[in-house]
Amino acid sequence: MTRIIAGGARGARLDVPGTGTRPTSDRVRESLFGALEAMDAIDGARVLDLYAGSGALGLEALSRGARSVDLVEISRSAVGVVGRNAGVVAKAMGGAAASKVHQSTVRAYLSRAQGQFDLVFTDPPYDLDDSAMTADLIALAPLLSTDAVVVIERGKRAAPPDLDAAGLTLLREKAYGDTRVWWAELASDDA
Questions:
Q1: Distance CA 33, CA 102 (A)
Q2: What are the tens digits of pLDDT across the range 85-108?
């Protein structure tokens, strides 16, 4: 069972798509969000959840005080699950949850997205190849606010993302079982 760990929707149960997704475990999400809260990266943030799956990452951020979340998923069945989960979180928060669900490929969404994001989760299928991951990051970079944090989750054996190609710099890296997570930010111009 997947649930919201903390915040206004704490304890809300989330559905998980039947196939084709790999939800981030509660243990990984708890550690990940502890680090993000220590960085003051959540409160008031405009969040983007790419390869949303169940939407657990973006909806957890919303529960913990993010201003809004855009959830992007290509699978029609997963989009239905994300929409239901967003409704569960909104109800748990008294209707005060600003979320939008987009059925789209990540690249198509990034090519038409407006505004800037402060916190981005990208949790692609583990078999997404490195060049596609790099292309996603390059397309994402112009949509980041100056102090944005990007969280990339991949399989433990995957090559590190090519942050340089997207003008990003590594903040932190951590492995959890079969999962590896990288935190990144825009590289400073004076570096």
A1: 23
A2: 999 999 999 886 699 999 999 999
